[in-house]
Amino acid sequence: MNAGFDWVALAEYAAIGLLSGGLLALIALGFVLIYKGTGVINFAMGEFMMLGAYFFYTARVLWALPAWLALALTLAAVAVVAAVIERALLRPLAGQPVISVLMATIGLASALHGGVEALWSGRNYEMPALLPRKPFTPGEILIPGQVLWSFVLAAAVIAAFTLYFRFSRTGVAMRAAASDPLTACVLGIDVRRTQALTWMFAGMVGAVAGIVVASMTSLSPALGGTALGVLAVIILGGLDSIAGAIVAGLVVGLAESLTAGYLGGKVRDIVPYAIVLVILLIRPYGLFGTRQIERL
What we know:
Helix content is 70%, strand content 0%. By secondary structure, it is mostly helical.
């Protein structure tokens, strides 16, 4: 055993990685909700994050509204945008080949990105602090306050959605429609309504994640690319599993933090996909995904 090994640094990297993984899980939740509800991988998820962050910035900074009101208006606005997109763009593509729907979400991402640049310009904005920044110091370990509270917020949002889907009447209907749309329709469940709600909820999840990420970094159209880094999480956990998104988020967050701490930032970007490759060789449908998922 190496007596000179820095166990404090290891504990710090591990703690920060696990806490950062909570935010990754929150972003992954948006992908999982839409896939479970509609069978679509939404490549515009990052643009929902970006749009929510810009809406919040406008309401909080430009309109000088209280934070709680700015957040409420942001969630409502993003939900409306998501519902309109589902109705105008995705619903007409029902029954079309999967590749057509995927291409539609890619086109949607480009359109939203261009729209944001046209309205707010492409420069960086400083988002007002949303989470406490005072570091947490258990023993000799130092954890940035924003990392800790982003985990708490992500855990609260994920728990709220999990409880809603499990115990509420609408949540049960949404799960039934996602599991077997034809049977759900025969039983009187409005499948189109549940799919619209799925997009609205996913949009709101993305908005919360986008606001948190922008408050920890900066606000620019480049924020939309953040979600692409979460693809490793949703593939690893399973595209249709909320539990998988949580576990995979923590695993990827831990791996990224340890890799960045000991091997450097360049290797950090490779490790999550290396983990995904190894896991998929053993479980092609992810850690918690169902065997019926098609990998594209």
